[in-house]
Design goal:
mainly alpha, single chain, two-stranded antiparallel sheet
């Protein structure tokens, strides 16, 4: 790598980024589909899959955060304006809050539900309820709304994130996007 090139993210960071991104997009689509369905056996199975993938996202996101805290991210381009730097940092940390908070809200919702429905991750592993959570319709409803609003926040942040990455690539013509998509041709 030449000295003029912006460093890329590590392979681990890139894999976790794209794996979590694909899982989240699948969850957003799957969540909309299953909520529109009439109650039936397929809807129940989709809810179980949604919970399974949600816990997987939670685990991978915690790993991603730990990786990020122990491995420095590549620097932002020098020409970025202060508000752009703030937006980049805010959106990245916002993603961590949402990637961890959204599945936690879902887990709390399931744990508070007065109707006890055992969660089995991918039909294999029994997943416990959050310890110490009382079963309450009010708490279940609050966590359901929180989970839904956080999903909408993820959609908004995804649009902003993708838009900013494309702006960097096509308008600014810098290497921000190529750091996370190493197969793209670098600009510098």
């Amino acid at each position: 790598m030449g000295s003029t090139l912006t460093p890329s993210y590590s392979k681990v960071a890139i894999i976790l980024h794209w794996l979590i991104a694909l899982l989240i997009i699948g969850q957003l689509i799957g969540g909309k589909v299953m909520m529109a369905m009439d109650p039936n056996a397929l809807k129940f199975e989709l809810f179980q899959l949604h919970k399974s993938f949600g816990i997987l996202i939670l685990i991978l996101s915690v790993l991603r955060l730990l990786w990020r805290l122990t491995h420095k991210a590549p620097p932002l381009p020098e020409g970025m304006k202060p508000y752009e730097r703030f937006g980049a940092k805010f959106s990245h940390w916002g993603f961590y809050v949402l990637m961890i908070g959204t599945p936690l809200a879902g887990w709390l919702m399931v744990s508070a539900n007065p109707t006890i429905i055992t969660t089995k991750l991918f039909k294999l592993v029994k997943w416990p309820d959050v310890p110490g959570i009382a079963r309450s319709e009010a708490l279940k409803d609050l966590m359901s709304q929180t989970h839904e609003y956080m999903a909408y926040a993820i959609i908004a942040l995804l649009i902003l994130h993708v838009g900013a990455a494309l702006k960097h690539h096509f308008i600014n013509q810098d290497d921000v996007l190529t750091r996370m998509l190493p197969f793209l041709k670098r600009k510098t």
